[in-house]
Design goal:
The protein folds into 2 domains: 112 residues, Aspartate Aminotransferase, domain 1; 219 residues, 3-Layer(aba) Sandwich (Aspartate Aminotransferase, domain 2), CATH 3.40.640.10. It has 13 helices and 13 strands. β4 and β5 form a beta hairpin. α6 packs parallel to α7 and α11 packs parallel to α13. It is globular, with a radius of gyration of 21 Å. The protein is of the alpha/beta class and 362 residues long. The strands form 3 sheets. It has an 8-stranded mixed β-sheet, sandwiched between helices. Helices cover 44% and strands 15% of the residues. It binds pyridoxal-5'-phosphate.
C-alpha cells in the first residue's frame, strides 16, 4: 500500500517547537510564581503586568503610561482599530499585507487603499499622492521583514513617512512583531523613535521571540490614546493574562530573552538560505528577494501562473503554502507566501522538491 508523503507546512507563520526555549520558560514560570504570586494570580489592571510594562517602556525609551500590554499584538491591533477607525474611514495598507489585518479592517467597514510594497518598503511617492488627494485616518505599515513579503522599510523611507504623517495629520500604525529577528543587513530606527508629536502608534509582540502560545503583545503610543484604549480594555476583559505576562517578565529580565532570540535568528537564517537555494534549484521561475530576517518569503511567479492552482497541486503532494491572493485586495494570483519558521532544514529540502513537482504539473 502506498503511504502518503509526510505533510510539510510552509503555511504557518509560527516557530517550530525546537526553537522555543521550553526550559527557560519553565524556569521563568517558577520564578514568577515564587517571586510575585500576588501579582501573577490577581486580576491586575488593563494596562498589563506593571513590571513588564516598565521593561517595555525602558526598552523603547518612553514613559510607562505610554505602554499597554495585551493578549498578543492582534489584540492591540483590534483595540487600536476600534479606537481610530470608523466605517468609511480611509485606511492605507501595503500591497500585499497581513491577511488578518485586512480582514479586521474590512470588518470595520474601512475604505482600504492598497499602496504597492517595494523591496525597500511601501512606495512613499504613491502614498504621498494618495494622502494629499484624500484624507487618511490610518496607515498600517509592517516595517521589518513584512508579512507576507519579507521586505523591510529603509531608513530614508521611515523618516519620509513620519514627516508625511506630521504634515498630513494621519496616524501611522507601526506593526512590528518581527523587529528582533534580523539575521543580516542593518537595523533601522523604529518610526516610533522618529516621531515627535504622536504621529506613530507602535505594536510588537513576544510571539516571535518567546512563543506565540503565551499571547503577550503590546502597544506604545501617546499617553492619552493609551489611556483611552486602557478603558476599552477594562470593558473588554478587565485585564489581560497576568500569569502569562509575569512569566514573560521573568523571561526577559532573567537573560533567557537574548539567548532565545539568538537561537531563533540562527535557525531562521539557515532555513531562509535553504529555502532560497531550494527554490533556485527546483522552481527556477520563482522571483524573490532574500529576506534579512523574519519568517517569510514572497514568491512571484510568471504572469499567468495561477497561485491558487499551485496551492492545490502542492497540497496534493502534502505541502501547504499560502495563496498570495489572501494578502491582496485585487485578484492577482501569480504569487505565493512561504513561511520557513516552522520547518526544519530537511523538511525545507523535501518540501521545495515537492513544490517544484507541483509547479511543473500546472
Ligand atoms: C504583521 C503581524 N501583526 C500582528 C501579528 C499578530 O501577532 P500576535 O501573535 O502578537 O497576536 C502577526 C502574526 O503573525 C503579524 O504577522
Amino acid at each position: 500500500m502506498a503511504t502518503e508523503p509526510a505533510p510539510i507546512s510552509f503555511a504557518r507563520g509560527a516557530p517550530s517547537l525546537d526553537i522555543i526555549d521550553v526550559e527557560g520558560l519553565r524556569a521563568a514560570a517558577d520564578r514568577a510564581f515564587t517571586n510575585d504570586p500576588a501579582g501573577s494570580f490577581a486580576y491586575g489592571t488593563s494596562v498589563g503586568y506593571k513590571p513588564l510594562r516598565a521593561w517595555i517602556a525602558e526598552r523603547h525609551g518612553v514613559a510607562e503610561d505610554q505602554v499597554l500590554v495585551t493578549n498578543g499584538s492582534m489584540q492591540a491591533d483590534a483595540f487600536l482599530f476600534e479606537t481610530l477607525v470608523s466605517a468609511g474611514d480611509t485606511v492605507v495598507v501595503e500591497r500585499p499585507s497581513y491577511d488578518r489585518t485586512l480582514l479586521s479592517l474590512k470588518g470595520r467597514g474601512a475604505d482600504l487603499r492598497a499602496v504597492p510594497l517595494e523591496e525597500d518598503g511601501v512606495d512613499v511617492a504613491a502614498l504621498t499622492e494618495l494622502v494629499r488627494a484624500n484624507p487618511v485616518a490610518l496607515a498600517h505599515l509592517i516595517p521589518n521583514f513584512q508579512n507576507p513579503a519579507g521586505y523591510s522599510l529603509s531608513g530614508d523611507k521611515r523618516r519620509a513617512l513620519v514627516e508625511l504623517a506630521r504634515e498630513q495629520g494621519f496616524t501611522i500604525f507601526e506593526d512590528d512583531p518581527y523587529v528582533e529577528l534580523r539575521f543580516s543587513g542593518e537595523p533601522q530606527p523604529t518610526m516610533l523613535s522618529l516621531a515627535t508629536g504622536g504621529e506613530v502608534v507602535y505594536a510588537s509582540s513576544f510571539s516571535k521571540t518567546v512563543c506565540p502560545g503565551i499571547r503577550v503583545g503590546y502597544l506604545v503610543g501617546q499617553a492619552d490614546i493609551i489611556a483611552q484604549i486602557a478603558k476599552l480594555a477594562t470593558g473588554t476583559y478587565i485585564s489581560p493574562n497576568m500569569v502569562a505576562q509575569s512569566i514573560v517578565n521573568e523571561f526577559v529580565r532573567g537573560g533567557s530573552f537574548d539567548t532565545s532570540i539568538e537561537t531563533v535568528k540562527t535557525a531562521l537564517a539557515e532555513r531562509s538560505q535553504r529555502l532560497c537555494a531550494g527554490l533556485r534549484e527546483h522552481v527556477p521561475d520563482a522571483q524573490f528577494v532574500e529576506p534579512e530576517g523574519g519568517y517569510f518569503l514572497w514568491v512571484n511567479l510568471p504572469e499567468g501562473v495561477d497561485g491558487d492552482a499551485l496551492f492545490d497541486a502542492a497540497a496534493a503532494r502534502g505541502v501547504q503554502i499560502v495563496k498570495g491572493s489572501d494578502f491582496l485586495l485585487d485578484d492577482s494570483k501569480n504569487a505565493i507566501r512561504l513561511a520557513y519558521s516552522g520547518v526544519t532544514p530537511d523538511e525545507i529540502d523535501e518540501g521545495v522538491k515537492r513544490l517544484g513537482e507541483a509547479y511543473r504539473s500546472l
